[in-house]
Amino acid sequence: AQRVTQPEKLLSVFKGAPVELKCNYSYSGSPELFWYVQYSRQRLQLLLRHISRESIKGFTADLNKGETSFHLKKPFAQEEDSAMYYCALSDQAGTALIFGKGTTLSVSS
Amino acid sequence: EPEVTQTPSHQVTQMGQEVILRCVPISNHLYFYWYRQILGQKVEFLVSFYNNEISEKSEIFDDQFSVERPDGSNFTLKIRSTKLEDSAMYFCASSRSLYGYTFGSGTRLTVV
Q1: How many C-beta atoms lie closer than 10 Å to residue A87's C-beta?
Q2: Is the CB of residue A79 less than 8 Å from the CB of residue A15?
Q3: Which residues in chain B come in under a pLDDT of 50?
């Protein structure tokens, strides 16, 4: 069955510290992986997707098929990064996104 | 930047009542979705809609739920007889392709 696991419910770091939000998935085929972010009282927004291999707001994520992981990383956290982060997967265009439970990132000064 | 609009932002209803949650997807998008998030839990897929019919639905989307695109712009989710456990945040989303999911800001449904 398709499953996305985000093992950390809360991650607290200090400003300037590196951040890694973990995401593991279970899927038999070749999924598309995404990270979504939800800032306080705002809507879910696409942060990045593995296929584009881009860096958004300093965040990157590499798909590791061997470890079935798609961890989100940022070398130096900023206070404005504080938000809820969701890892999600999909198998093809127009189908459901399967979300993880989300990780709250709290960055303090 | 185009947005997915959801109304109302908060709906309170009595158990057993019917509710309709409304969404206006982005105009040139082809796929439409409903998701829900029960407080403290993960975002869960309910249903996807393409070419004027349901293309995929989850186990949550039982006979109590229905979706409709009554005109060229609105996309609605109807819950026929609400239960306490239907209390959640309901998100509408639309996409033109796999890479263009846009979510609305959600409707918080409270069933009392």
Answers
A1: 28
A2: yes
A3: none
